[in-house]
Amino acid sequence: MLALSYRGYWTSNGRASEAGLVLDAEAILAHAARTYPPSAHTRFVLYGHSLGASVALTAAANAHSIPPPPISSPTSSIPPSPPIHGLILETPFLSVRAMLATMYPQKWLPYHYLSPFLRNHWDGPAALRRLVARPSRPLPLSPPSGASSRPSSPPSNPSSPPAILILQAGRDELVPPHHAHELESLCLELGYCTPSSSSLSNSSISSNGSVPSVLPERRTVRLVSIANALHTDVLSAASGRRAVVDFLVRFGA
What we know:
This protein has helices at about 20-35, 50-65, 95-105, 125-135, 175-190, 240-250; strands at about 45-50, 85-90, 165-170, 205, 220-225. It contains 6 helices and 5 strands. Mean pLDDT is about 80; it is low at about 70-80, about 135-160 and about 195-215. The protein is an alpha/beta fold. Strand 1 (about 45-50), helix 2 (about 50-65) and strand 2 form a beta-alpha-beta unit. A 5-stranded parallel beta sheet has the order 1-2-3-5-4, with helices on both faces.
């Protein structure tokens, strides 16, 4: 597990900006590729909460849409971003523009009309479209040291968009519920499907924390609402933690 402290956050120097945070995310992905070389047994899952969900989604879109350099390229010693197999978005928002309208819905306030002057946009729908628009070439899969050069089972295609788990706080006091719903709807419009049946889409986990047995595969999306959770409470709830564990364990991560 790698945790990133963006510039301007915690003990990191600098000033937070969309361009800077994207660079930070790309840097940690390159570090992950060096530390854990992609192989048939490696799974890369990005997790982001709130603004971090926008960073994770943008980083996944960048990693997926930019092909790695050819093996013969002089820059091939620089590790490309690893193939992203899973994406967990906790209490995501659509965009800064959408949040501006949410925080200042009164049309008589000047803030409602400031979207053309925004410096940071974090456009989630645009990132989702890039995620599925131009998949990258599959990276070569290398077996672990001492193992057969032929994997025992064919790995999932790294060029396929990652499975997506959207966690919505049932009582989110900051992000309206339609943000998560619209992200899920866009995923379905772009060719994503639910893990097993439509009944799992937009479902709530029971109060005892039980989660249906579902195998998340590539190009699947699932929206899970955590009842009574506030914006920062999703992982405080047993059902929220269970949803994440279920996604990771059944994904093979």
